[in-house]
Specification:
5 helices, binds zinc ion, alpha+beta, five-stranded mixed β-sheet
Length: 184
């Protein structure tokens, strides 16, 4: 028995058999993605490094089929989620970055009409066959934000806007205090 996530197949084969792949993998099985996460975490103080980041689960479901009624355009619909460890670029602390990627692709084919591919993005393959695992990895990498940051400012201890700094709010009192000191 093969491993549908790792076997090299053509999109047509996967579509014709209506292949559905449910998976839950460790991030370490996605070599390029793991490298990106590691190089991001390398900037952390070793003490702040999440020890178990390589065990992060990457889970999802892929469903292959055809985008058109003529069964000529192989398609992939699915969803992949992962909560990866990343470094917040505002406070430079590690945090959990949730990725939730919707997949809706049609594979690059010979002749195509706009109607065939409505609602789908075109996924271009370099070779006839591919590993679904590699596609998942590439889609996750593309979904990563250019600048990762805490979404919730409550949990981010980074540099805040000046008007939000508690100390800045005390400024009138500080000014008053220094004025009083001068008077004395
Ligand atoms: Zn932060």
């Amino acid at each position: 028995m093969g491993n549908p996530l790792r076997d090299r197949r053509t999109p047509s084969e996967l579509a014709a058999s209506g292949q559905v792949i449910d998976f839950s993998e460790k991030i370490n099985n996605f070599v390029e993605l793991a490298k990106i996460v590691q190089s991001d975490l390398d900037s952390l103080d070793p003490a702040g490094l999440p020890a178990d980041w390589r065990d992060t689960d990457v889970a999802g479901r892929l469903s292959f089929g055809f985008a058109d009624a003529q069964n000529s355009r192989p398609s992939l619909r699915g969803r992949v989620t992962a909560t990866i460890d990343a470094v917040c670029q505002r406070c430079l602390e590690a945090f959990k970055l949730a990725l939730d990627v919707e997949l809706r692709f049609v594979f690059d084919g010979e002749e195509s009409t706009a109607a065939d591919t409505a609602g789908y993005e075109i996924w271009e393959l370099e070779e006839n066959t591919f590993r679904p695992l590699d596609l998942v990895e590439e889609a996750l990498i593309m979904a990563m934000p250019l600048v990762a940051m805490h979404v919730d400012s409550e949990t981010c201890h980074g540099p805040m806007e000046i008007e939000q700094r508690p100390n800045e709010k005390l400024r009138p009192f500080a000014a008053l205090k220094s004025q009083m000191e001068q008077d004395n």
